[in-house]
């Protein structure tokens, strides 16, 4: 029993880590599934309402179909119209499936108590295959509706039909849960592989910072209205790096770049920065939500931190060119990079190991 619990706990932890690491992909998938389910409701319920006009024995179901359509419309309007609700997509999915379960149970035990459940079997099988959530919660949700239908069936249907329904639903739900759990892990692992490929594509190997490709992608994104805009851009250059390379060798130069990348990553977390390796020993840093004075303070902190790096018994220094844009309306942030590049040139011309603002 202890071994089984450890296996369960390990799998639960692995699931939580995969979901956390791929949160945006999981939310996108669940959001897409909710939209599809609601859209299906908006298409199917009107068809069923129209069909009842031509089938006398089904006219009693028109009210339930109309109610189902109304709930789908409400869920669609709430989900699409209120941005805050979109953060709770999983609740929307459970609400949507609850609607489908309620309708199917009504059709099974009240509208046609003399017939075996059919639509309900499909829902029990499809539900676990559809979206990504904690397996335990999904299983408990399935078990709740299974027990609800079973109790009502034994009260309102014949014992034979109720027993057949129970066995059939149990089989379909079991198949759905097993396949759903397998697909869940496959989806999560697929998301994780894709995420790691994106990181590898956008990350500089030596420094662990964003690479030049990621910089150009960011510059394109900054042209859109919804993008978060930087308050200023800094260009950094390790002073006399060619001489350091010639003296200690290229491997030592690589270690220096790696160490400096570690420093920039630490500073990025502390000061809300995006850091990119522009090429060679040059780096670009974007700062957000700061005033001109704060931007210069950040640059000063970077300058002082770099002086503390001990490489092969030597202290490295950096020069920093700063371009503040604040609330300016910027059409192309490459112009700000050019300003910071010119400021960096001035810092070099004026003796290195200093900050220059343009």
What does this protein structure show overall?
The mean pLDDT is 89. With 358 residues, the protein is of the alpha+beta class. 68% of the residues lie in helices and 9% in strands. The protein has helices spanning 2-21, 23-52, 62-81, 89-111, 119-130, 135-156, 159-202, 212-221, 241-248, 250-271, 292-307, 334-349; strands at 232-238, 273-279, 282-287, 310-311, 314-315, 318-324, 355-357. It folds into 2 domains: 2-200, no CATH class; 212-357, Reverse transcriptase/Diguanylate cyclase domain (Alpha-Beta Plaits). Strands 2-3-1-6-7 form a 5-stranded mixed β-sheet, sandwiched between helices.
Write the layout of secondary structure elements.
Layout: H1 2-21, H2 23-52, H3 62-81, H4 89-111, H5 119-130, H6 135-156, H7 159-202, H8 212-221, E1 232-238, H9 241-248, H10 250-271, E2 273-279, E3 282-287, H11 292-307, E4 310-311, E5 314-315, E6 318-324, H12 334-349, E7 355-357
Parallel strand pairs: 6-7
Antiparallel strand pairs: 1-3, 1-6, 2-3, 4-5
Helix pairs in contact: 1-7, 2-3, 2-4, 3-4, 4-5, 4-6, 5-7, 6-7, 9-10, 10-11
């Amino acid at each position: 029993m202890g071994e089984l619990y450890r296996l369960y706990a390990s799998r639960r932890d692995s699931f939580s880590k995969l979901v956390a690491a791929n949160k945006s992909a999981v939310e996108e998938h669940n959001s897409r599934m909710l939209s599809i389910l609601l859209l299906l409701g908006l298409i199917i319920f009107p068809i069923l309402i129209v069909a009842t006009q031509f089938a006398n024995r089904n006219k009693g179901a028109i009210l339930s179909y109309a109610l189902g359509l109304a709930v789908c419309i409400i869920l669609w309007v709430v989900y699409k119209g209120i941005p805050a609700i979109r953060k709770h997509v999983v609740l929307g999915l459970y609400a949507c499936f609850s609607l489908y379960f309620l309708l199917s149970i009504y059709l099974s035990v009240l509208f046609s108590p003399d017939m075996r459940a059919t639509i309900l079997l499909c829902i029990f099988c499809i539900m676990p295959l559809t979206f990504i959530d904690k397996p335990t919660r999904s299983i408990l949700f399935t078990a709740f509706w299974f027990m609800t239908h079973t109790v009502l069936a034994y009260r309102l249907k014949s014992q034979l039909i109720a027993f057949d329904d129970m066995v059939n639903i149990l089989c379909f739900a079991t198949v759905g849960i097993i396949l759903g759990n397998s697909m869940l892990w496959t989806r999560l692992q697929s998301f994780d592989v894709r995420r790691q490929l994106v990181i590898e594509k956008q990350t500089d190997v030596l420094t662990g910072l964003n690479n030049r490709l990621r910089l150009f992608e960011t510059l394109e994104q900054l042209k859109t209205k919804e993008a978060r805009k930087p308050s200023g851009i800094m260009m950094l250059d390790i002073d006399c790096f060619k001489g350091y390379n010639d003296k200690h060798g290229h491997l030592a130069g690589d270690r220096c770049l790696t160490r400096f990348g570690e420093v920039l990553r630490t500073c990025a977390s502390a000061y809300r920065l995006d850091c990119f390796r522009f090429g060679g020993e040059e780096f670009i840093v974007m700062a957000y939500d700061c005033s001109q004075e704060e931007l210069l303070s950040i640059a000063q902190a970077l300058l002082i931190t770099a002086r503390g790096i001990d490489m092969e018994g030597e202290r490295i220094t950096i020069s920093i060119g700063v371009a503040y844009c604040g609330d300016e309306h910027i059409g192309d942030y490459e112009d700000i990079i050019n300003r910071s590049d010119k400021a960096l040139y001035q810092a070099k011309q004026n003796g290195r190991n200093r900050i220059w603002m343009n």
